[in-house]
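Researcher: I'd like a candidate sequence for this fold, 173 residues long. If you have to choose between options at a position, lean toward the conservative one.
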């Protein structure tokens, strides 16, 4: 890599692209599946998994952002959140996580306010962890759509892998 490569900006951009991929899924997820029960786990619904994605972000922001004075987004009610409400909530939690990442990058990669965590307290462990977590749930939701006899349109399913496109969209927001 050349000396002009800005890895810090790229770490933040990677999160923002992931955030856009997650939002893209929920923007294009069928309303009729939102309240469907998860096969094999009848007490869970698609809505609950979707709400968990946002609420997990909020938990990290609350835990790590307290000392850095990062605004903690309000969690959603996983039992009642609508798809449009979730999309708006992700629009708050995504930038809050980006702010945490930026703060860590300004402090040699150290995450702020880590008292206990299940991963090393640095940004280069934190960002892949978050992306993997959301990727897991995106895959889970795509599979659930199939299991519920509602395969997502190819442009949506393949659109989750169009990270160059999603990165351009994230930069335009």
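Model: Candidate sequence:
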């Amino acid at each position: 890599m050349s000396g002009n490569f800005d890895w810090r900006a790229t770490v933040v951009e990677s999160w923002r692209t992931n955030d856009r991929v997650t939002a893209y899924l929920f923007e294009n997820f069928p309303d009729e599946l939102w309240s469907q029960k998860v096969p094999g786990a009848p007490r869970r619904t698609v809505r609950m998994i979707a709400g968990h994605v946002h609420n997990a972000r909020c938990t990290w922001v609350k835990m790590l952002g307290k000392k850095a004075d990062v605004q903690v987004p309000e969690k959603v009610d996983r039992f009642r959140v609508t798809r449009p409400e979730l999309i708006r909530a992700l629009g708050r939690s995504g930038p809050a996580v980006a702010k945490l990442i930026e703060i860590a990058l300004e402090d040699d990669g150290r995450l702020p306010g880590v008292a206990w965590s299940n991963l090393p307290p640095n940004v280069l462990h934190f960002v892949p962890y978050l992306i993997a977590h959301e990727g897991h749930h995106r895959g889970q939701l795509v599979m659930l759509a199939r299991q519920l006899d509602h395969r997502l349109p190819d442009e949506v399913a393949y659109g989750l892998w169009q990270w160059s496109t999603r990165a351009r969209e994230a930069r335009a927001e």
